Amino acid sequence: MKYAEGRPGRVFVVRLEDGDILHEEIEALAVKENIRSASVILLGGADRKSRLVTGPKEGRATEIKPLHSVLEDVHEAAGTGTIFPGPDGNPVLHLHIAAGRRESTVTGCVRSGVRVWHVMEAVIMEITGLDSSRVRDKITGFDLLEP
User: Per the domain annotation, does 45 fall within a domain?
Assistant: First the structure.
């Protein structure tokens, strides 16, 4: 385990609007407001054709290939995640949602493109006093958090 201690900073309350692409809007706000580190919670509607990364195709394969799921209709969504700089220094949102419709739920990462259905709300809680970032891991190919 690796960790670092930070302190609470600013808090942003965000309303995403119909058609917004979730990770693009949150990352753009992070650039605009110079948010380097933060935690994020959100809830709202995910539109049909939204895409989620729902795991690797094979659990312990030497080459990790993502498995994608497409929402065929509108889903209710709730999620949590973080913002930290990626290898290029730009903020990267890593956020997973649980998206449900009727008795079915799919859970995954929003990086493939979750489109907002009418409204989605997010609370972004900045963390200050950190020099944490995401660094490319040679084995997995993931950009892993280095606290």
Answer: yes
Report yes or no on 3 lying in a domain. no
User: What Cα–Cα distance (Å) separates residue 1 from each residue in 4, 23, 86, 107, 146?
Assistant: 10, 27, 20, 25, 10
Tokens of 133: 């970032």
**pTM for the full model?**
0.94
**Residue 143 domain flag:** no
Cβ contact 42:55 at 8 Å: no
How would DSSP label each residue in 49-115?
Answer: T-EEEEEESSTT-SS--EEEEE-SS-EEEEEEEEEEE-TTSSEEEEEEEEEEETTEEEEEEGGGTPB
Token look-up 């808090």 returns 11
CATH number at 60 reads 3.30.1330.80
pLDDT digits (tens, 9 = 90+) for 65-94: 999 999 999 999 999 999 999 999 999 999
Distance CA 3, CA 19 (A): 36
